[in-house]
Structures are given as C-alpha cells and as structure tokens.
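Record format v2
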Amino acid sequence: MAERIVIPGGTLDAHVHFRQPGATHKEDFVTGTRAALKGGYTAVFDMPNNPIPTVTPSALDEKRRLANGNIYVDLGFNYGGTVESSKTFGLVQDRIRALKVYMNPTTGNLLVKTDQELETIFTRWPRKYPIMVHAEGQTFERAINMARKTGQRLHLCHMSLKREIEMVRDAKNEGLPVTCEVSAHHLLLTEEDADSLPTGQGRMKPPLATSEDRDSLWENLDVIDILASDHAPHTREEKDNFEEEKGPYGVTGLETTLPLMLTAVDDGLLTLEKLIDMISTKPRKIFGLREDPRTFTEVIFGESSYVIDSKNLETRAKQTPFDGYRVTGRVANVELRGVRILNEGEIVALPQGRII
Ligand code: NCD
Ligand code: ZN
Ligand code: ZN
Ligand code: ZN
C-alpha cells in the first residue's frame, strides 16, 4: 500500500559539491539546488573544494554573491580548513555552517598532511559548529585522536568501513563529541558492483568496499547519525574519457538518496523513524538549524515501482550509479516557509532559497 508521509521541519544534506565558481560545467548553484529540491531537501551545505578553494573570506563572499537569488533551497557553506585559513576563522564564523578538513587526497587541493597542522586547525576553530573531516584508512583514527586531544566536535564524513564504524562506536562510548555520516552508495553498493557500473560510476572517495563492510553499516545503524549524499558531480565526458585509474572521483546523489532509502524502508532494512532522523532531525541538530514549522517534505513510499533514469535528473551531471534501479519511494511535495516549491515532483516556484 502506498503511503504519504510528511517529514516536518526541514531536511538537510550537509555534504554536497556544487562546483561554483570554477567548474560550472559540472554543476552550479541553480542546477545543484534544483537537484536538491527534486531530491526532497530543503537545505544543503556546499563543500569548499572548488578550483579556487573556499579558504578565504573573499572566496566565501564570492560564493555568497553568486548564490544569492539563484538558489531553490536554503544553502549554507562549509569553509576549508588549512593552517593558512585558520587565521581567518574568526572573520568568517558567522557566515559558514561548518569547517571541512581533508586528511586524504581527493577532488581539490586542500590536503592537511601532518598532525601538527591538524592540531593548529582544530585548536583555532571557534567551536560553534562541528569540524567535518574527510578521513580514510590511517587518518580516520588520527582524526578521532585529535578530537580527544582538543575537545572539538568532530564529524566524520562518508564512512564506509567496518573498522571505521567500530572506531566511532568506541569513541562515542568514550564520550567523545563525535558524529558521523554515511552515503547511500556505501550502504547499497560494494566493490564487486563497480565493474558492472558505467565508466566511473563506481569510482568515488572513499571507494566502494566489501560486502562485509557494507553489512556492518546496516548492522550498526544506531551509531550512524546522518545520511549525506556527498553529491559530487562530474560530467559524463570527464568520467568516460579517463582510464579507470585516472578518472575523477565522485558520483551524484541528491536525487537518488531519498527514493533509494525509502525503498530500503519498504524492504524492511530500516525504520521510517530512523530515516527521518538521519535526514532531518539529527542533521539539523548537529549543524544548528532550527526546525521550521512551515517547512516540510512529503514523500510517498511503498507505491508501485519505477525505474531511476539518469536522463531525468536535474543535476548537470546526468549520471548515477543507480541508473536503472527499481525503487518504490519518491519525493512528492516540498514547502519552504509556507510556499509550495515542489508539487507532485515538479518544481513550481522561482528560486527562493536563503543563504543560511
Ligand atoms: C568529492 C568531489 O568530487 O568533490 N569526491 C568524492 O569522490 N567523494 C570529494 C570528496 O568528498 O572527497
Ligand atoms: Zn570526501
Ligand atoms: Zn564530498
Ligand atoms: Zn511494499
């Protein structure tokens, strides 16, 4: 039986890459926030790993200028954490949502290599919002150790491994101020799937892992705080024109996460309450967004199945690892501050998102 469910108060994806300025052939604030709206989000946070990274007050202001008037949902900015940028934390803290620190190589040029640099950044951060880290392998433990040493709130991005989730469980048991996120592709795909996906659609950071790792995410859902899409658009040409070892990392996710996860609810993999917590209540709490009684997302799940078709995506990068997937959930309606902006899956309003 199909059921309509209202997710009240606002949904948040705290981890997306909108590529403006510098790589708008992949995505920009218009196409990115349209994808977010279609995907059922009322707020998203943009990451700082642009060609000119968001590590200075002027780069941040340029993003705000470009986004202003062009966004379909609310948009916040995560600032890039480097030793150099840490001198400006005080100047930008009221215009950003979180700090983002890259501890492993990935798209962009923001790698923080040593514990000494990391400690400088953690110590200078003015503590209002969490420090989000991209950490994989050895660096995962170093990030947790730095949270212990400095007492800072740490948010671990896109967890994918069994040993990572075990470390997060231990850190939480120890009472450390640690939260974490997972992305739908790590919950639903493994390294074995990578070969059968279209070129590059199994290629992202962190990489797809083993079925044991994937299963451990489902078995430890109680440790996982939020869902994040890690929406990382690259064009089909960029994905196709590279050998498997050279192509850009990242896949889109804004428009597929909720349909896939609603389908997982329908399949009995998690409860609707947990899904709503991971996509709405908890991310708002972690990142300090107030609940808005006039903002909601209405979804339908358990309806007759349909197939995800990358051609229908709003993102400029019309590709997804889930092209052709059969799902039973969809996003129907979205209201933002009392205004209907998505109606039965169609965008029906001009951009009226706010920079938050
Ligand atoms: C992201 C991107 O392309 O910006 N890529 C990815 O594979 N996830 C960067 C990141 O989140 O590591
Ligand atoms: Zn990352
Ligand atoms: Zn990312
Ligand atoms: Zn059903």
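The pocket of zinc ion (ligand 3) is lined by residues 15, 17, 47, 230, 232 (CB under 6 Å).
DSSP finds twelve helices and 13 strands in the chain.
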